[in-house]
Amino acid sequence: QVQLVESGGGLVQAGGSLRLSCTASGRSFSSYAMGWFRQAPGKKREFVATFGDSIYYADSVKGRFGISRDNAKNTVYLQMNSLKPEDTAVYYCAARTSGNLLRDDYDYWGQGTQVTVSS
After folding, report:
1. SS3 sequence of 28-50
2. Going residue by residue through the chain (119 aa), what tens digit of pLDDT does each one get?
3. Fewer CB within 10 Å, N or C, the chain?
4. Is 118 exposed, middle or buried (0-12, 13-18, 19+ CB in 10 A)?
5. Among candidates 40, 43, 78, 74, which has minimal Cα distance to 57?
6. Are 75 and 66 in contact (CB under 8 A)?
7. CB contact at 8 A, 20 and 91
8. Cβ atoms 74, 25 nearer than 8 A
9. Per-residue DSSP letter, 107
10. pLDDT tens digits for 16-30?
């Protein structure tokens, strides 16, 4: 069992930056692929970025967001730059051991952290 706790969300003006963190409990963190997803009000949850054997980004965040991980700290990060109002959403981190990294059927999920970008 893995528990994930996100932090770092908040309110920021358009063009600003935030860094989200997600810390995992349990062992074998390095064996998990870690992903970030987001869900805006009235919309389906969507893929943002993932860090497994490879790193992938959604087209909407490429060049603005960066995912990284520190296995010694059991933590994955999402650095978000040049934020836009359309980035406003609840951001979730997730962990999986196998499967398609871009699908949202990850094994474990955090509770989410709110990111609000004002125009």
Report:
1. CHHHCEEEEEEECCCCCCEEEEE
2. 899 999 999 999 999 999 999 999 988 899 999 999 999 999 999 999 999 999 999 999 999 999 999 999 999 999 999 999 999 999 999 999 988 999 999 999 999 999 999 99
3. N
4. exposed
5. 78
6. no
7. yes
8. yes
9. S
10. 999 999 999 988 899
